[in-house]
Amino acid sequence: MNEFRWTLQDGSGASLRASRAFASKEEAEAWMSTEWSELAAEGAVSVSLTHGDEVLYEMGLGEA
Fold first, then answer.
1. How far is it, in rounded angstroms, from Cα 9 to Cα 48?
2. Which of 43, 44, 55, 59 is the Cys-Cys partner for 8 at CB 3.0 to 4.6 Å?
3. Stated pTM of the model
4. Longest dimension (CA), the chain
5. Residue 28: what pLDDT?
6. What does DSSP assign to residue 22?
7. Cβ–Cβ contacts within 10 Å for residue 57, how many?
8. Helix H or strand E segment including 33
9. Structural domains counted in the chain
10. Tens digit of pLDDT for each residue in 5-48?
């Protein structure tokens, strides 16, 4: 089963950790919309959304 996960990266681009698995892209994006500030406080500067081994997109965690 291909699950959706966020991979958190620090300022140098190194992976910090992956999020829990989500059944859908929408669930993963909803989770990120509520958790991004906590993840930034943890040291994450950017995140990548993956589906299985495929990177769907990357984004920064700075405030808009």
1. 8
2. 44
3. 0.90
4. 34
5. 98
6. B
7. 8
8. helix 25-41
9. 1
10. 999 999 999 999 999 999 999 999 999 999 999 999 999 999 99
SS3 content of the chain, % helix, strand, coil (to 5): 25, 40, 35
Distance CA 52, CA 28 (A): 13
At position 25, the amino acid (one-letter code) is K
Q: What is the b/e burial string over 36-45, where b = at least 16 CB atoms within 10 angstroms of the residue's CB? A: beebbeeebb
Task: Provide the residue range defining the domain that includes 31.
Answer: 4-60
Which secondary-structure segment (H or E) carries 44?
A: none
Structure tokens at 52: 């299985």
**What is d(CA 8, CA 57) in angstroms, rounded to the nearest whole number?**
12
**What count of residues does the chain have?**
64
